[in-house]
Amino acid sequence: QVQLVESGGGLVQAGGSLRLSCAASKRTLSTYAMGWLRQAPGKEREFVAAITRSDYDTKYGDSVKGRFTISRDNTKDAVTLQMSNLKPEDTAVYYCAAAMNIERLPMGAAAFWGQGTQVNVSS
User: Which of 21, 44, 71, 72 is the most exposed place for a label (fewest CB within 10 A)?
Assistant: First the structure.
């Protein structure tokens, strides 16, 4: 069992930036493709970004392309989501997720999930 813990959420004005981090309870993060999904109140969970185990490929949801960047450091068992030019519609709970391959993450088919971190973007 892998426990994922997100951090870095908060309140930011539109146009601002935030950096989310995800850490694992065990030194096994390099085993998994990692990603971020989000869920706004009253809406379905939405794919945000994903990265392969060895950092050779990334995927992004259409609504965040060009504004968000996912990266990982397997030596630190950490994954980061750098969010720029934030918009009010980015307001959501952001979840870190781990899956055996990157293709599962856009479908929300993760093996492990974090508890989420709240991001609020004011207009």
Answer: 44
